[in-house]
Specification:
Blueprint (H helix, E strand, L loop, with lengths): L15 H13 L13 H12 L4 E5 L2 H11 L7 E5 L4 H8 L4 E5 L9 H4 L7 E7 L8 H10 L3 E5 L7 E2 L2 E2 L6 E5 L12 E5 L2 H10 L30 H12 L1 H26 L2 E2 L6 E2 L4 E5 L3 H13 L5 E2 L8 H11 L4 E2 L2 H8 L2 E5 L6
Parallel strand pairs: 2-3, 2-4, 3-14, 4-5, 5-8
Antiparallel strand pairs: 1-9, 6-7, 6-11, 8-9, 10-12, 12-15, 13-15
The protein binds pyridoxal-5'-phosphate (PLP).
Length: 375
Amino acid sequence: MKNLFGGYPGARYIGTEELSGVTDIVNSRSPYRFYGLDLLKRTEELEALCSKRFMRGYALAVSSGTAALHTALYSAGVRSGDEVILPGYAWSADLMAILALSAVPVIAPIDKTLGLDADALVDCITKKTKAIITVHMRGVPCDIIQIINIAKKHGVKVIEDGAQCIGGLISGEPVGGVGDISVLSFQFNKLITSGEGGVVLTNDAEIYERARAFHDLGMLRMAGNADPEGLEGIKSLGLNYRLSELQSAFLIPQIDKIDMVLAGLRGNFRLAVESLRPIMDEFGLSIRDMIRDTSPNHAFLGLTAESKGSFDAACMKMKDLGLPIQKAGRIDGHHFRTWAAFMDREGWEYRLHKPEQSEEFLNRMMFLEIKSRIE
Ligand SMILES: Cc1ncc(COP(=O)(O)O)c(C=O)c1O
């Protein structure tokens, strides 16, 4: 049974296809996206594949999910002093991207999905709110449709962070295909990976243009064209968040493998539930709740206990059996308590709404990472 559990879903499928992609770049001696000795334009190819797979008009490959978040917030118009709402359970990258723009994080409570609680959102919105980051945590979609409806009424942009839920579905749409701007990560422990990497997705041409400039030092460069000249050459603030041709060539076969990885996870998820059923029955654990008309990517099995007592007893039993459980309530880079402690130490401005509600959900849930492939 223990062999069913373990992370790194995409990495388990790395093989000759990725090697061949990288070898092509080495042979072309052109690892940079905009020019080379014999440029293969793999980054453009990757962007086209991402547009298709995630059903978006525009895809911009970037160097990480964190870079994608920073780019998304800037492109949504977030500037110094604006407020950005994020859920109390996410990843420190979501917080850091807000702070990097000198914006003010407003930490909102989560619901049973471990995503932002749509019902609590209105209380967090003020005249200063510019964007909402909503995160599909641990392989399960959050209540994003409801969140988008509320955001629209207040003229606020929704940034969908699908880093932990690539392959999930929301009313038939892929995760990454729903927010005003969506971001995905291709870091090592993601559904597909090139070690580092990310993508910004949108249907809005103006947002895409702003993102393209931000990820390339404020310029609007194209592969094969000369660098822009003249006083208008720099359009906006920007950093270097470009993805290399090496990583793009590595990711192209990974995109092709998404369905294979998902099928592996689905099968092993079923087996994991079957083998854990006796423990679940003994301690009254149930599979984590989801929003109607959504499906997970099965990379995580989330189990909820009815009370703190049964949760603690179940954790003890599972640890005795050598099962690699992770407590959702662990105080680490995913948890608002860790962020608040850091911001308090450094004197950052932030707001925290209903922390007890978030803790109520987090402290009764555990996860097991599902192996995508059993060798
Ligand atoms: C929810 C979430 N958002 C953003 C990121 C940031 O991605 P990266 O590590 O590629 O910067 C991660 C993970 O790494 C994540 O889990």
